[in-house]
Each structure stands twice: as C-alpha cells, then as structure tokens.
Amino acid sequence: MHLWGDSWPHWDQLYKSENNINKKFEERTGLVLLSKEKYGTVRYEHIVDPKTKYSFADTKDNWMILKEIVFEEIEEYPEIKDELLSDLAAHEELIGIEIHKHYWRSA
C-alpha cells in the first residue's frame, strides 16, 4: 500500500499500466473496464458495455481476458506486480488459490 506523496518511485508506471490495461481490454472486447488507483494499487471495479452505458458485463470470460492482460502488463513492469495484481487476487476462482492466499487472508 502506498500513499500519495510517499517516496515510492513507481507512480508514473502504475498510471501508465492502468491506462494500458484499460486500452487493451477495450480493444480486445469492445467493453469498458472501470478502474481506479487507490492506495497505490489498481482497483478493477466493473466491466461495462458502452452501448448501453449502464449494463454491467462482469462475466467470468471477461474477467479471464482481464487477467491475461494484467499478466501481460506484469511482464512489462514486474516492479509493480503487487500493485497490479492485489485487487484481482480477491477473485480466488479466477486467479487461483495460491495467488489469492498471497494477497488475501481469511479472518
């Protein structure tokens, strides 16, 4: 977790990666990924069909495409792997138990 103004040197890479992920996702699916940066991590919120503007397209297939794109981005920017992957890792069935357990702990 990072706070704005701290000495973490990868803010520009994080924002560039978030934009790259959104752009690649739209190119591959025709859908819009709603994401944001929060505490120095990318939060993947919803997948939206731009034709209807309000219709969520949060299907497993679309999340699998997002997973592929995130891992492509990690290949390019391994130094921000945790920041790109931690929110996606909440989805155990999508990401796998090992990665899920690395980022998320049960109470």
Number of helices: 5
Q: Could you tell me how far the N terminus lies from the C terminus, measured between alpha carbons in angstroms?
A: 19 Å
Measured on Cα atoms, how large is the radius of gyration? 14 Å
Q: What number of structural domains do the residues give?
A: 1
Give the class from helix and strand content and strand pairing.
alpha+beta
Taken in chain order, the helices and strands follow as HEEHHHH
Mean pLDDT over all positions: 86
Helix content range of the residues, please? 40-55%
For the largest beta sheet, what order do the strands appear in spatially? 1-2
Q: Could you tell me the number of beta strands?
A: 2
Keywords:
single chain; 107 residues; alpha+beta; two-stranded antiparallel ribbon; 5 helices
Q: Explain this structure to me?
A:
The chain has 107 residues and is α+β, with helices and mostly antiparallel strands. The chain has 5 helices and 2 strands, in the order αββαααα. A two-stranded antiparallel sheet has the order 1-2. It is globular and about 40 Å long. The chain starts with 10 loop residues before the first helix and ends with a helix. The model has no long low-confidence stretch (mean pLDDT 86).
Quick structural gist:
This protein has 107 residues and is an alpha+beta fold. The protein has helices at residues 11-29, 60-76, 81-85, 92-95, 97-103, and strands at residues 32-38, 41-48.
